[in-house]
User: Fold these one by one.
Assistant:
Number 1:
Amino acid sequence: LIFLRHHIDDGLKYEYLTVENPLEMWQNLNDRFEHLKAVVLPKALNDWSQLRFQDFKIVSEYNCTLFKIVSQLKMCGEVITEDMLQEKTYRTFHASNMLLQQQYSLHGFTKYRELIGSLLIAEQNNELLLQNHESRPTGSAPLLEVNATSSKFRGRGRRRRRGRGSGSGRNQNFLGPRNNYSMKWQNPDTKQCQKWRNPGQSSKDEQTQNKKGNCNRCGMEGHWYRACRTAKHWVDFYQDSLKENDKRI
C-alpha cells in the first residue's frame, strides 16, 4: 500500500486515501486506466506509419523517437521485431542516398543496434570532413608556421650582422676604437681575410697591410677596410698621423 501511494499521482493519493487494502487499490487503478491502451494504440500506430528517417537531421533524434513509439506499441501489446526496425529505417532513407541504403542493406546486419551504430559513426565522420573543408577550402594554401617564420628572420638577421657588424651605424659612431674589438670574432685569421683593396692603395702597401693585419682606414686590427665602422674623428686622427713621418702612431 505504501509503495502504490508513493508512485501514483498526487491527485490520486487524496482520491484513494481512504482505501486501506492494496488489492482493492490496485483493482481500482486498473479499472480506471485500462482503457488508455485503446487510446494510445491508434496514435502510436499512426506515428509508426509516419516515421521516416529522412525527416531527421541527426541520427540520434531519429533513434530516440523510434524507441519512444516502439515502447508505446509494446505497452499496448504490439510485437516489434528487429527486422521491422531495420526495414523501417531502410525504406525511409532519402532518395539521394539510394546507393548508401543499398550498401547498408547488403551488409547483413542482424540487429538494429548494429545498423544504428554504423549510421552514427558515418555521421560523425561526415561532420569532421565538413569541418576540415570549411576551415580550409580546396585550393587554398596552408598558413606558414610561426616558428619557422620567426627562425627564418632570426637566421637572416645573424647573417646580416656577420657581414656588416653588430649594432646600427649611427650608434657605432659613439663607440670609438672599442668597436674594433667587436669585429675580432668575425675575422679570427686576419692574414687570410684581409683581401679587400683600399682604393688608391698600392700593391706594396696592401702586402704590408696584410702582414701587419691592420685596417687601412683606422689602423686597427681585426676587420677589413670596407667593414670598418670606426668613428670619423678617429679615422681623421689616424690619417693625419700617417702624414707625420717623424712621429710614431
Number 2:
Amino acid sequence: GMEKVVVCPYKRPNALYRLICFPWAGGGTSQLAQWGKLFSSSVEVFSVRLPGRESRHKEPFAKDMATVVNEITSALLKELQEKPFAFFGHSFGSYISFAVALHLKEKYGLEPFHLFLSGAHAPHSEAFLPIKTVSISDTKDEDVLKYIEVLGGTPPELLQSEDIKEHLILTFREDLRVLQTLSFEKAERNIPFSCDITCFNGSEDKSHDVEAWHDLTSGDISFYELPGGHFYLLEPSNEIFLTKHITKCIENAGL
C-alpha cells in the first residue's frame, strides 16, 4: 500500500532524514512532491496522496479523519521507524499532519522531530471552530468555487474545464467534510508533543491562531510570515525560503 499512498519522485535511499508532506484541501501531490529536487541528498521527500484524486481517483473519498490517519499510518509505519522524520503540511494538510503525529505518538510512541505547519490554526483554538460548523451540504457549488478562486493556488486554466472544475469542487467539499471530523480536546496539563514546531503564514492571508500551538509542545516554536496570500508557498522565492529554512532546521536538529 505505500506506493498508493505516498509519492516520492526523487528517491534517496541513503538520506538521513525524511520529510513527509501533506496536501491542502482539494490538492494532490504534484507541487510538494517536486520539493524533492530542492533538498540536499540528506533529505528524502514523501508527498501523501489521499483517496479520490490522481491515481486514486476511482477510490471513494475518505469518510473521516480517523480513516485518513489510519491509512497513512499503516502505509508509512515501517519507513517512520527506520529514520528520523519531519512533517510539513499546508492548510488542510497541517491538520492531517497534526492528527497523524498525534496518533503515532499515542499508539506507537513515535514522534516527528519537527512539525512544519503552514496556513493553519491550532486545532484546539477558538479560531478553528467556524471551520467545524460551516454547513457543507447547504453551500452551493458556485460559492465553493468562488472560495477556491479567492484562496488561489488553482491555475485559472484548469477551471475552464467543466470536468476538472466539478472534480475540484467535489474534492474540496469532501476534504472539508473530513476536516470537520477532526476532534481534539486539549487536556489540562497534557502537552502532546516534545518536538519543535515552525508555523508559516502568508502576509496577505487571513491571520491564523498560531500562538495556540505553544500549548501543544514542550519544544521550541517559531513563526514566519512570507509575502503573499493563502498559497504564498507556490511562489518560487517563498519555496526557496521554505526549503532552505526546513533544511537548516533538519540539519540543526543534531539527530
Number 3:
Amino acid sequence: MERFRMVFQYFQSNTESVANGICALLTLASVKMYTIFDFNCPCLPKYNVLYGMGVMFIPPVVLFFVGIIVNKHSVMMLEEWTRPTGKRKKNPAIIKFMFTNLIQRAMIAPVVWILVTLLDGKCFICAFSVTVDPSRFNGLPNVPGLDITRVLAKVPCKEDIIFQNTTSRKAVSRYLRCWSQALGWSILLFLIMLAVVARCLKPCFNHAAFLQARYWSSYADLEQKLFDETCSTHAREFARKCVIQFFESMHEEMCQGMILPLDDEDDPLHGITSRKQVNELLKAWYRSKPDLDITKIAQRQYNRARVRVTWEGDQNESRQAFKQNGHSPHTDV
C-alpha cells in the first residue's frame, strides 16, 4: 500500500509522467475496445467499404481528440498562445515543444488501433472483398440473378448459404488477410525505422535549444501549479480570518486566543486583505505574467545574510572582549 501511494504521488507531481500514463491507458483502452467490439460486416457491395473503413479510421480519430483533450499540454499550449504579452514575451519554442509532445502522445493510441485492425484483417476483408479479381479464384458460386460483385461482398459472412459447399470464400479471405497483415507489418516497420532515424539524428540538431524549451515548458507547468497552491493557501487563510472576524463581531468571547497577529512574517496573505485586492491580483497575473528575473529576491536574501554575518561577528567580538577583561558575557557587571 505504501509503494502504491508513493507511485501515485510521483505520477501526481510529475506532469510528464501523468501524460505518459494517460497515453498508455488510452493505448490499452484502444486494444481492449477492439477485442470486445462485435464486428458485423453488412456484406453489401455499397456498404462494405464504408463499414470497414469506418471501423478502421473513425475510432482512431475519436481516440486522437480524446488524447488531445486529456493531455494537460493542450491547455498549457493554448494558455501560452492566447495570454497577453505583458512583461513576459511569448516563446515560440515552448509552444512548438508542447505541440510536438501533444501530437506524439495523441497519435499513439490511434496508430495502435489501426495496426491491430490491419493485423486482424477483418476490416480489410470487409472493405476490399468486392475489389478482388474473381479470375484468380476458382470455384466461386454462380448464382442465377446474382452478379459476381454481390457474391464477393458476402465473403466476410462465412455463415451465408452461398458459400456452404465451396472453399473459395476461405481462399479470398486468406488472400485479403495476407495483404492486410503485410500492410500492417510494413507500417510498423516504417514507424520503427522512423523512430531509429529520429533518435540517431537528434544529436545533430541544436540540443541546447531543446533543453531550453523543455526547461521552460516544465517551468510554465510548475509556475501555474505553484500559483494555484499559493492561491489556495491565501484563500484558506483569508476565509479563516473572515470567519474569525464574523464570530468575533457576533460573540467576541468565542474567539479569544484564536486570532493570529497581523504582523506575522510568514502570513500567507502577504498584505492582501480585501476582495478588491484579490481580484486585482488575479487580473494582474493574467494580464502580465511576472518577468523571469528574481534578482531582487536574491539581493534581499544576500543583504539579510550579510546582516546576519555582521551581527554574529559583533557577538563574537563582544565575547572575546569580555574574556580578555576577565568577565563572562552572561554575567552582569
Number 4:
Amino acid sequence: VDLSHLSPEERWRVEHARMHAKHRGHEAMHAEMVLILIATLVVAQLLLVQWKQRHPRSYNMVTLFQMWVVPLYFTIKLYWWRFLVIWVLFSAVTAFVTFRATRKPLGQTTPRLVYKWFLLIYKISYATGIVGYMAVMFTLFGLNLLFRIKPEDAMDFGISLLFYGLYYGVLERDFAEMCADYMASTVGFYSASGMPTKHLSDSVCAVCGQQIFVDVNEEGIIENTYRLSCNHVFHEFCIRGWCIVGKKQTCPYCKEKVDLKRMFSNPY
C-alpha cells in the first residue's frame, strides 16, 4: 500500500492497524503464559511443602546448600569482592566448626565451641540488621541530611547491612541446627526414638557430657546451672545453645517439651 499520499496522522493509523493485525492473538497467549506460571508456582509450593513434611532432613540440607552456594555465583559475576571476602571467612570457620561437630567420638569442648561460634554470628547479624534498618528509616525521614550524607549513599548502606544481617542470620541458624543434630546423636544421651541410649548422671550435662560443679541454687562465676521441668540439669550455656541456637525445644535427654519463655526471660 502506498502511504506517500496520506497525511502523517492517517499514516500513523495505518501503521497502528498493521501492528495490531500482526500481533493478533498475543494477548491470549500472554494470558495463558501467566496462568501456566501461576499453576507452576502453586504446584511447586505444594511439592515443597510435602517434601519438607515427609523428608525434612533432605529438604533442609538441599535448601541450606543452595542458600550457601548460589550467592557465590552472583558475587563472582558482579565482582562483589567485599561480600566474597566475608563469605569466604564465614565459610572457612563454619566448615571447621561443622567438621568438629560431626566427628566421632565428639570432643568434650566441641559443643561449647559450636554454640559460641553460632551465638557470635547471631549477635553480629542481629546488630548489623538493626543498624541497617535504622539507616534505612533515617534516610526515609531525611535525617541523613544532618550528617551531609547523600540519600542514595545512605540507602545503599542501610540495605547492604540489612542484607548481610538477614543472610548470615538465616545461614547460621540452619548450620547450627544441623550441627546440633549431629552432636545430639554423637553424644549418646539423645536419640530420635526418645529413649536415651545411656543413663545420665545427676552431675553430668547431657549436651556437652562434662561435669556440673555449680548447684542449681548457687550463683556461678562463669555460668549458672539450669534445671528443666523434667528435673534434668544442664550448664546454662549448653542448654541455651541447645534450645535457642539449635532450635531444639525439647530436653536433650528425655525429649520433654521445654517452655523457653518460662525458662529464660532473655534467651541470649
